[in-house]
Amino acid sequence: MKNIYKLLILTIVASGTMFYSCETIELEKLENPIALTQADPTLLLNRIQLDFNGSMAEFNFEGSTTGRVLVMGTRNYFARYGSGTVSTSWNNLYADMIPDIAAIEKAHSAENDLSFHLGVAKALQATVMINLVDWLGDIVFSEANNPEEFPSPKLDDDADVYAAAVAMLDEAIAYLNGASAGTANDLYYGGDSSKWIKFANTMKMRANLAQGNYPAVINATNVISSAADDLEFKYGTQLINPDTRHPDYETDYRSDGANIYHSNWLMGMMAGTYGDFNPNTGRPEPDPRRRFYFYRQNLGTPGSYFIYQSGASVFLANVAGNGETLQCSLQNVPSHLEFTPDENIWCSVQMSYWGRSHGNDEGTPPDGFTRTASGVYPAGGSFDDNPDVPNAANGLNYDSNFVALGAGGGGAGIEPIMLSSFVDFYRAEAYLASNDPTNAATYLQSAITKSIAKVQSFGSLDGDADSAALASAMNPTRISTFISQTIAAFNAAPMTSALDGFGWPVEKDKMDILGEQLAIAQFGAGNDMFNFIRRTGHPRTLARSLEGSPGLFPRSVLYPAGEVSANPNVDQKTDLATRVFWDQGVTNPAN
Q1: pLDDT per position as a tens digit, 362-389
Q2: What are the b/e assignments for 110-143, b being 16+ CB within 10 Å?
Q3: Contact at 8 Å (CB) between 220 and 204?
Q4: C-alpha distances out from residue 451 to 71, 292, 372, 456, 507, Å
Q5: Which residues pair with 133 in a beta bridge?
Q6: Per CATH, domain 1-13+35-225+534-591 is 1.10.1060.10
Q7: Is the pTM of this model over 0.85?
Q8: Closest CA to 20 of 69, 67, 63, 84
Q9: Which residue in 98, 193, 432, 485 has the most C-beta neighbors within 10 A?
């Protein structure tokens, strides 16, 4: 720890981008406000808040790839979730947050009341600690950042660190009760102590859920419950000095086209069979969030189908394979995916959605202007106003709808950290795990309703979106139908169901449906999916890896390589099998 601290205190302000073969995350720190003055408590608080966002962006990204919300672009789990998985969060905590909080504590006095600063900072530190335990298990805590006495700090038991983090949340609440922000520049809640208290209580609720303390989740009070309480980091539209745009926007809205591959499993589930075309009464409505999440650039994906209108007739058109832009479209279905639902989405998805599936590690073909790009939520990109059923008379193409620098919302998106919809999912899971499906359905409905409202509020960011298409996507009747159909399916589903010979549920059970809806609502976030999968073994409908033997799904990931090399008291794991203390070892057949 001592060596890492000395190194990072000099380099922590550098910007960096981490690339995987088929997935991208920007782990860039925004411009450091602590360039000259290390002692100013408000500047220290701002750095803590920026470091916190960087950590949550990392947790969100990694959780999204395990949970199929984003693409895992590596065939083997051990190769993918190595020593760099949560290294940014580790470094943020030990190199910045803990010493910065210590400096604020030193400056705090009756004459210089920094209760607000300390309350916020400790709530954020506790959150990062909880998440590091979720990802790593045992971590450094009691001997951290004391190089004179503990030059090689030991790992503490993960359950003890969890308990210490929850106690720190209580400490944060105590500081925040009655605290005034004063001159503090609060990057999240504008100095509102009451909202920070709700966030701290919500993190206690989340910690209880992980540990199976369902009554505490069900009975939690004064937690985030509306969009006004949502904890999110807001990005801007500035291009340089510094670039304040959402990282996904920066990656996708470029002169060379989009650079992120979105999840075939998620897009296929949300698009439905025919999108907005509904020839039969009662056909399930497509998810009303899809046009906000994903921006289609190309009509038709090689190997799949789209539909179009010609005169008074509607036709379904199959798209021929194209080895240059989508190599797998000329390949046979992997044998372990034959006769399974993945047979339809392993390479390409219906209705012009163009992404990749779990474990696809192919190179990057010239598809920057054909693959599906990030949309207006949460990246601040473009709303997808492309028709699901284009008229042949107008030309069967989306040629005028490529991504471009400055398009859509210009990158003014958010990093979703803790939303009110997530909190309702916590309660729905707790009720379902407590064998109370009636209340679970109530909170699932509330969670979906809040998620849709949140997502669709971003439509106004894209001033160039077709107003009629936007109004259609936000049609209250269709939204109501989608929600009622989803809840009806949940209510009709059994509490448990068996698996078929391929490891798929013979019918979805209630936790499968809840898990699918959580995955959809987690788009742009994703951190909760990693815990949910390990905690419940659901949803069992997750896309299988393209690799028939991808290795063990991570129960925890490797320690940062820098810490292992610098600290003889931290031994690197040899596999991903080590379980976090709350993990009961439930397995998901998809993994």
Answers
A1: 999 999 999 999 999 999 999 999 999 9
A2: eeeebbbbbbbbbbbbbbbbbbbbbbbbbbbbeb
A3: yes
A4: 22, 12, 22, 9, 26
A5: none
A6: no
A7: yes
A8: 84
A9: 432
